[in-house]
Structure formats: structure tokens, C-alpha cells
């Protein structure tokens, strides 16, 4: 049974750097510990919050229950042939460290997802994505412990019901399963699927002097890291949880209507034939970019990111998010949905 601590300050455990306390706090290092915890009296009489790196949550108050931090480690080879390798990764591994491990070994498929904070276990939760790639493309299956039976369940890629920043874990079975490992297949050689169509990857590679016909996993990862470092606030310096809202999708009709007033409205293809409009652009057009309110605000380079300059209050950040949502709705008749998990 893992040790359970009382009244723990959660500030070191969330990248928004919000001060809030947990009534109980524990770390899980193995599936056995998870099962022991889920069958314990304390777990079954308290509400729970599963936590990875805390980079996709906003704490709006103290947590009156048990916070369960995932610390299950380990990377093992499931199978391997000349072209592919399948790896099973402990859910508590740091995502970017795992990407670096793959890049060093020249395993391809997740290099565009370099420098995303958080754990491997939370990555399927919202089907992390960046620069034209989503983790669902590499996932084979996700293993999770069902909390009310203590049983291990395997979710195939299809059963994960992945969508844009969505999965079954964020919706239908939310809080019912503790993800313990993720199994992915990556390419070893002949990386046919380098994706440099999105964002500024091709420009960055060219400005770094690389030949676009001679790309490597490492070159793409380095370019992604350079782009991210140039435009996203480092949570070690300024508290934030990345994009606060998802990019909304609209129908062709609505898009045409917006384009009549805003000829330069940016867009990219969304799911099911819809058109995605960058949420950051909508927030910027609504006048919020760079706005600061005491010690919280909207980031000056990327309006989709809300920030805590230090000592900020989670409830106030949530109020700001709701003000932004309201003003974008009034101006564009578009509802921005939070990407961050609000606790
Ligand atoms: C600077 C910055 C940049 C970012 N950029 C991106 C980006 O480009 N693309 C992107 O997709 N995201 C991005 N994010 C968001 C975030 O990094 C990802 O969502 C990440 O996967 C969250 O991992 P985490 O371990 O920190 O999750 P946490 O914040 O700890 O948890 C997130 C949610 O998952 C649940 N959860 C966590 N672990 C488990 C588990 N083992 N079992 C069940 N449920 C669990 C939690 O209860 C919570 O609801 C960014 C965040 C920051 C701060």
C-alpha cells in the first residue's frame, strides 16, 4: 500500500503554479500499488484526482479528497522487426524525456510532439497533438486499472475513441480508470511519414540550413523545440497550462460569414469537413492578447495561453477564462471550449 500524506501543497505539482492543498496525497509506483490503493477504505470514502505532471489542470480550490500522482516508470520492448519497434511505456514517465529517448535511437513518429510537458499516461487522455501530429497515430493500446474492480483493462486504439483533444478517458469513463501504461509503435528506419506541413517547421528547418529532402527524426525534433521555445511561455518561468481553450471548428457557412468581415481570418481543416479557426486569433481579435490583471493574464505572444505571473488565484483565472469565452461568443458567435481540466 503506498504511503498517504496529509495536507500537501499542490503548487509544485501543477504547471499553472496555483497554490491549493490536497487533503490526502499519494504516489503510485506500480500497478500493484494502484490496485492496493483502489481497494483501500480511504480511497473508497474520499473523492479522487489522478495527477500526472499537472500541466493540463487548473486548480480553483483546495482538493478535499485524495490526489493520486502517477509515478509508474519503465520502458520495455514489446516487439521489433526491421522497420518498426513497439514499446510499452510506464504512464508516469515524463513525455518529453520519452520523446528524447526515441529521438536518440532514431525511432520516428512522435518527434513533432517534442517538448509537450506532462506524463506519458496523460497523453492519451486528451490525445495530445502538435504540428500536425496526434499521439493516436502511434498508439496501439492503453492499459488502465478500473478503480471499482481493481482489474486491468486493455483499451485498443479504437476503444480509446480518440478525437481532437478528446478520448474515452476524458469523456465516457472519466475518473473510472487509472492509466498505467501506453504501448506505441514507432518507425525504425525509412521514416516515410515526416510531417513538416504544419506551422513553421519547414521554414525553421530551412533557416537552420537543413535540406528538406534529407530530414531526420532529430532535425524535426530540434526544429519543433526551437519553435515552441520561441513562442510558448516556459512553465518553469511563467505559470501556465498551454492552450487554455481548444481551437473551435465551424461550418463552411459560418466561416464564409466571418470572412466577409475579417478577410484575413486564419483557418485549417477540422474534423468531419468542418473548418478550424485558431482560438488564439479569436481571442486576440476580441482584444485580450497581452492583457494583465494583477498577477494573471493572457500571454502576450500566444493569446490562447492564460498565465499566472506568480501568486495568481485559480478561481480568478477561471473567471478570466469565462470573460474571454463570453466576449468571443458575443463578437463571433463561436463558443470556446476549455482544453484544460478545471478542478
Ligand atoms: C507550456 C505547455 C505547452 C503545452 N503544449 C501542448 C501541446 O502542444 N499539445 C497538447 O496536446 N497539450 C499541450 N499541453 C497540455 C499538456 O502538456 C498535456 O495535456 C499533457 O498530456 C498533460 O499531461 P500531465 O501528465 O501534466 O497531465 P495532468 O495535468 O496531470 O492531468 C491531465 C488530466 O489527465 C488526468 N490524468 C492524468 N494522469 C492520468 C492517469 N494516469 N490516468 C487517468 N487519468 C489521468 C488528470 O486527472 C487530468 O484530468 C501543454 C501544456 C503546457 C504547460
TrEMBL record:
It catalyses: UDP-N-acetyl-alpha-D-muramate + NADP(+) = UDP-N-acetyl-3-O-(1-carboxyvinyl)-alpha-D-glucosamine + NADPH + H(+). It is an enzyme of class 1 (oxidoreductase). Residues 18-189 form the FAD-binding PCMH-type domain. The active site is at residues 165, 243, 339. One of its GO terms (cellular component) is cytosol. Keywords: Cell cycle, Cell division, Cell shape, Cell wall biogenesis/degradation, Cytoplasm, FAD, Flavoprotein, NADP, Oxidoreductase, Peptidoglycan synthesis. Signal peptide: none annotated. Its EC number is 1.3.1.98. Its cofactor is FAD. Pfam families: FAD_binding_4 (PF01565), MurB_C (PF02873). GO terms for molecular function: FAD binding; UDP-N-acetylmuramate dehydrogenase activity. GO terms for biological process: cell division; cell wall organization; peptidoglycan biosynthetic process; regulation of cell shape. It is found in: Cytoplasm. The keyword Amino-acid biosynthesis does not apply. Pathway: Cell wall biogenesis; peptidoglycan biosynthesis. HAMAP family: MurB (MF_00037). Cell wall formation. NCBIfam families: murB, PRK00046.1. Belongs to the MurB family. This is UDP-N-acetylenolpyruvoylglucosamine reductase. The lineage of its organism: Bacteria, Pseudomonadati, Bacteroidota, Cytophagia, Cytophagales.
